[in-house]
Specification:
- With 130 residues, this protein is mainly beta.
- The protein has a single domain, classed as Immunoglobulins (Immunoglobulin-like).
- 14% of the residues lie in helices and 52% in strands.
- The chain is built from one helix and eight strands.
- A four-stranded antiparallel beta sheet has the order 1-2-3-6, with no helix packed on it. It has a four-stranded antiparallel beta sheet with strand order 5-4-7-8, with no helix packed on it.
- The N and C termini lie far apart (54 Å).
């Protein structure tokens, strides 16, 4: 009887985990870099092959909702994105996703963000060969 109870509890726990939503995963070809910003926020830059192009995801987690950040992304020194993002509930973060062309060879990406109210800066760098 105890084995059946343990099995039922374990199964309920697994179902509970699945019900909380998708779990982010990376495949073997992804490049993920993480770091700290100048005043305690964290950044993550993820590069992934996508149908002959490169998916670029840049996230800043500030733990404060409603701040505006100026964001720039460059590929091989050429700017491919410039815009603003606002940190959102519930985590006080923003995430930016773009799909970039994939010229031959290794591509170097630089993602940067500056908080317009505090001046905090975040800079992430990563390279990928697709």
């Amino acid at each position: 009887m105890r084995t059946s109870l343990r099995t039922a509890i374990a199964a309920a726990g697994i179902v509970g985990l699945l019900a909380t939503g998708p779990i982010a995963s990376a495949n073997d070809d992804d490049v993920i870099k993480e770091g700290s910003c100048s005043a305690g926020s964290d950044w993550k830059l993820k590069l992934s092959p996508e149908n002959g192009k490169t998916e670029v995801e840049f996230e800043v987690d500030q733990n404060k909702v409603g701040d505006t950040w100026r964001v720039k992304i460059a590929q091989n020194g050429e700017r491919i994105f410039r815009g603003r993002r606002v940190t959102r509930a519930p985590s006080g973060s923003f995430e930016l996703r773009i799909v970039a062309a994939n010229p031959p060879g290794t591509d170097a990406y630089r993602a940067s963000a500056r908080n317009l109210s505090t001046g905090e800066t975040c800079v992430g760098r990563a390279s990928i060969s697709v």
